[in-house]
Structures are given as C-alpha cells and as structure tokens.
UniProtKB/TrEMBL annotation:
Alphabetized PANTHER family for the sequence: 3-OXOACYL-[ACYL-CARRIER-PROTEIN] REDUCTASE, CHLOROPLASTIC, SHORT-CHAIN DEHYDROGENASES/REDUCTASES FAMILY MEMBER
Family: Belongs to the short-chain dehydrogenases/reductases (SDR) family.
SMART domains, sorted: PKS_KR
Gene3D superfamilies: NAD(P)-binding Rossmann-like Domain (3.40.50.720)
Coiled-coil features, chain-numbered ranges: none
A biological process from GO: fatty acid elongation
GO MF terms held by the record: oxidoreductase activity, acting on the CH-OH group of donors, NAD or NADP as acceptor
Protein's name according to its UniProt entry: SDR family oxidoreductase
Occurrences of domain Ketoreductase (ranges): 8-181
SUPFAM superfamilies referenced in this protein's UniProt entry, alphabetically: NAD(P)-binding Rossmann-fold domains
Source species: Lentzea tibetensis
Upper classification of the organism: Bacteria, Bacillati, Actinomycetota, Actinomycetes, Pseudonocardiales
C-alpha cells in the first residue's frame, strides 16, 4: 500500500451520493485515482463511474474488470453500497429482510471476494466497510438493516485474520446519524429526538465520515478495527 497522500486506485461502491460521494471526493482531494459504482445519477467530478448492482456477482466482476482496465489494480476497496427498507418485525416480509442483507452484507462480500485475489497477489491492500452505529446499538424497526451492518463487522474481522499475513487490512467505519437525503426526510420530532440522544447534539456531515475512511487507507498497522464516527451515540458498544 502506498503511503497516505500518494497515488492509489480506490473503488467506492455506491459512490454517487451521500457518504459514498463524500468518500470519493475525499480520496480525489488526497491525490487518488477514484472509481465509483452506482445504479444511476450524477457522479462527482473527476471519478470514473461504472454502473453496478452489488447483488449481482456478474455485475460486480464486470465492474472490477472495467475499473482495473481503466485505472489499474485496486489498492483500496470501500464497501459502502447499501439500502434500507424499514418496518417492525411483525410487518417485515422475508423479501424485505433478504434484499437488505443481500445488498448491504452479501454485496460487500462479493466485492471483497473479487478484490482479495489481486490484493493477496500483490501482498498489499485496504478493505474498508461502511457499517452503522445500529449494527452494534440496534434500532427498533431496523432489524434487517442492523443485522446486515453487524454482519460487516464479522466479515471485516474474519478477513483481517485471514489476509493480514498477505499485507491486506480490513476495517470498519461505523457512522451514526449523518446529514444525508435519508435523515433529511425524517419527521421533525424524530430528528429532534435522535439529536438529543447524541452527546454532540448534532448529526455528522458526510465529510466527517469520509475523513475516517481516508485515514484508515493510510493506516498500515490498523486492521480488524471498528471506528465509530457517531458523535458518541454508541459509546460502550
């Protein structure tokens, strides 16, 4: 892995909006060559975009092939793509549960599996998984989302043990509530309630999550870590 600030090739899944977009822009500002996967919509200036649904192995493999042909071997994978489909357990269908887990957890596994072979061969690489405070803290009405985000921690720590001797690290960033389209749509009373539960009394900006991701990409001796960026909401978990 080249040192922080040096040229690297970064792939961010779900990199056209929200946290993923901020991560892509932060790596661009750090001098990296950045590719993002997306399912449509405007992309950050300066990135190489490729359409990809992470629930499809075929599309994941094709996306990696295209990025590697255009930008070269991928040094850093940021597994960010994710969805929500929230409701209480008594109303949640199996399809709702499976679709969220397939995108958020299995999709990240598909990308990590594809990235691992090249990283192991080159004996260097960074995998960074975007989890959530609810993966450790839990949240009513988010059983599918929380389960998928908790699973990313087990995935990352298993890969840290499995791939560490080959120079590959695997870490997790666990954001709390972030100012994105999703939180902007919260009813005012819920937004106020959530803010009051956060010791810093505010939601994060996407750029604050991105700074932790960029730091991990340059942290040679950090692996298997879960970095909370949640304003203190999940402390102790």
């Amino acid at each position: 892995m080249r040192s922080k600030g040096a040229f690297v090739t970064v792939l961010v899944t779900g990199g056209n909006r929200g946290i993923g977009r901020a991560v892509a822009e932060a790596f661009l500002a750090d001098g990296a060559s950045v590719a993002v996967t997306h399912r449509g919509g405007p992309l950050p200036d300066g990135v190489f975009g490729v359409k990809c649904d992470v629930t499809s192995k075929t599309e994941v493999d094709a996306a990696f092939d295209v990025v590697e042909a255009e930008l070269g071997p991928i040094d850093v994978l940021v597994a960010n793509a994710g969805i929500t489909d929230s409701t209480v357990i008594t109303r949640m269908t199996e399809a709702q549960f499976v679709s969220v887990v397939d995108t958020n957890l299995t999709g990240a596994w598909r990308c990590a599996r594809r990235a691992a072979s090249g990283m192991v061969r080159r004996r260097t690489g960074r995998m960074i998984f975007i989890s959530s405070v609810v993966g450790m803290y839990g949240s009513a009405g988010l059983a599918n989302y929380a389960a998928s985000k908790a699973g990313l921690i087990g995935l990352a720590r298993s890969l840290a043990r499995e791939l560490g001797s080959r120079g590959v690290t695997a870490n997790v960033v666990a954001p709390g509530y972030v100012n994105t389209d999703m939180t902007a749509a919260l009813p005012a009373q819920y937004g106020k309630q959530y803010r009051e539960a956060i010791p810093l009394r505010r939601f994060a900006q996407p750029e604050e999550i991105a700074s932790a991701v960029v730091w991990l990409a340059g942290a040679d001796y950090v692996t298997g870590a879960v970095i909370p960026v949640d304003g203190g909401l999940g402390m102790g978990h």
